[in-house]
Amino acid sequence: MPRTPPTPDAHAPACAHAEADLDDLDDLDATVLRPRSYGLEGPDGGVSPVTSSGIVVGRRPAGGRSSTALRASGAVLSLDDPTRRSSREHAHVWADDAGAVWADDLHSANGTTVEPREGGSVALEPGRPHRLRSGDALVVGDHRLTVVRLPAGAP
Length: 155
Known about the structure:
By secondary structure, the protein is mainly beta. It has a single domain, classed as Tumour Suppressor Smad4, CATH 2.60.200. The chain is 3% helix and 30% strand. It contains one helix and eleven strands. It has one helix at 69-73; strands at residues 38-41, 47-50, 55-58, 75-78, 91-95, 101-105, 112-115, 122-123, 130-132, 137-140, 143-149. The N and C termini lie far apart (53 Å).
């Protein structure tokens, strides 16, 4: 026996598929949206994943001890810096819950600069996080760290 469409209800949603048959749900493809994952690519081509606990970027003596709570909670990206233009704890880079990447200058002696992929440069003000996008470069001392998108499934 053929099915007859339901009679429109004045209180029902105006959407044409609001009355979808539950048996048809098996035929639907589901897309799961996950936050994008990003990393910082150094001059040597190595990539450090950016996580919610973040990365402290700067120079530190080999075997040096952690001097901040940030270092204790996240990763450290130690820069080889013979000119000593980067501070021991120069900048903090982290991802928020939505996957956006942020950078903050940690009151470094020589400052932190962002070079957006579109061109120009922005000097970071300590204590005022700046959102980074894929292709932007974070300049710490003599080092340029580029924000890159990681493949799906990366940390």
